[in-house]
Amino acid sequence: MILLAEFEKGDALVAAARQAKGEDFSVIDAFTPIPLPELDDFAPGGTSRLQIWMLVSGVIMALVAFGVQTWSAVYDYPINSGGRPLFSWPAFLIAPVEVGILAAALTGFIVCLRLGGLPRLHHRLFDIPEFERASQDHFFLLFARADETKDADEGAAILLARQALGRFGALTVYEVGS
Amino acid sequence: MSAPARWFSDPAPRLPEVTEIVTEPLLERPAGRGWWLAFAFSLGLTLVMTVAVTWLFTEGVGVWGINTTVVWGFAIANYVWWIALGSGGTLISAILVVTRQDWRRSINRFAEGMTLFAVAVAGLFPILHLGRPMYFYWLAPYPNTMALWPQWRSALVWDFWAILSYLIFSVVFFYVGVLPDLATMRDRARSRRAQTFYGVLALGWRGSIRQWRSLESLHRTLAALGIPMVVSVHSIVGLDFAASLMPGWQETIFPPYFVVGALFSGFAMVLLVTAAFRWRMKWSSIITMAHFDAMAKIILAGSLLMSLSYATEWFDAWWNGKAPDRSLIAFQFTGSYAGLYWSMLVCNCVIPLALWRPRVRRNLPLLIGICFAILIGMWIERILIIWNTLSHGYAVPMWRLFAPTIWDWMITLGSAGLFMTLFLIWTRLVPAVSMHGVRALCREEKLT
Lengths: 178, 448
Description:
The structure holds two protein chains of two kinds.
Chain A: E1 2-7, H1 10-18, E2 25-31, H2 48-76, H3 89-92, H4 94-115, E3 139-145, H5 154-166, E4 170-177
Antiparallel strand pairs in A: 1-3, 1-4, 2-3
Helix pairs in contact in A: 2-4
Chain B: H1 15-28, H2 33-59, H3 74-98, H4 108-128, H5 155-188, H6 192-202, H7 209-242, H8 254-281, H9 289-320, H10 323-334, H11 338-350, H12 358-361, H13 364-391, H14 406-429, H15 435-444
Helix pairs in contact in B: 1-15, 2-14, 3-4, 3-7, 3-8, 3-13, 4-5, 4-14, 5-6, 5-7, 7-8, 8-9, 8-13, 9-10, 10-11, 11-13
């Protein structure tokens, strides 16, 4: 069974998450109005992939832009313009810088959204009305009971969770489902 | 390590109050009389510009004051001036992120908004100044029946790539920063229409650990990319002049000189916009005199660098001993446009020196006056870069002055109206302060 705890302060959520094992629950995710760097341990996997995608796409775009200019000015439509060299590479460097940075930005945007599972306009959590505070001023912790066989029934599980998290300052605990 | 609540003033908001402070004017209250008055005024100016542009397209560039000697006039000066203003927002969102200046968080949103519209307005002028503006798309490499390619060695083509990339980059950068706040708007919106509007734009943002981590990483990387972007864009604008052979233009100092000028005037504009928002929205608890003090220091640094750039130009003309260059410098100081030149020096180099004094940096009316002077001085500088060199080039028999026509003035002033119109509409749709940024600052300063 998956549960959602609501906290008023970010520090309370962090403290609760850190004590997860001791209190018999495992953290799945957290939803906060500001990033909490302390929670990075709970979602393993870094973001270097994002930057690698950006770098590769930027470089490829820059090379393509340089290549198109070179091919068009040297082979496809060579014009003697005041004796300037056909392969005017200093001038050809300008557009690749611009479009390379642009391509990196657009790629980064798409990869960032995919890493976050976006766009996803509907999610189960939005069915809980109080969850809208997650984008404003309350902090939410999504967790599950570590060992479900220990609980007599679901009601007991929620009560235990409320007690445990209440010690950390949780306002309440909601049931999300399984 | 900053002192507690350094970037807030009493009564300092707690973290939960930040959302209320920023969204209340947008979601709870209709646009007031002040907004409608400003909107009507700016719409009027936009109409002026529309009339002037229509007349321009009908009759051609001859309606302006340009002639066979001074082939560029207000249009290119306006282009440079507007795109320079746009750099202010990028400076805040890129350089101040990389240098970890926390105070940027309450001002970066409307600064970035200003960038979007300044760059959009700037991008119109290279099209308007064309003799045959209907062929502007020839700048792009598209498959065509003439089997032609753009002239890659032309500064105008470089401008095309620069403006296009800068505009789209700024939009992406802005969207990345505003995404969590769009989710806040979605969750606080009352009407179904507002919920749908913000809901679609927020893309389903939930604020999960992974989402925040990806977004923060992307934002930092975009900020790092934004620095070479803004520097290269303004260097390209400088190359519009420096890649030519005219006296006073063919100087290697032009690219960095234009970048500094852009940051200088861009920041002056940001200060004015900040003062306007702070006054209008009553945000003095999150935008403090410490913010203005920090901005004033950057503006002072810009002014000193501009003075250095001007002095380098004068030194260069004397040092290289070429008669056309020396003649041009003499013309700048004593010729027909000398009054404008001296005004420019006063506005850009002398008046900002007052910012050395801390009491001036924390005096808002004085700051506003100084920034207005800077914006006017920088516009005059753009005009004079064009007029001085073109009026006083290598070919002495071609020396001729420029006299603006009513259509020049209408397009210039009207462009400010277009900018204001777009910006005013934006303020009714988008939260003008970064809520998640200021909340994070609250947490750092223990104001939870």
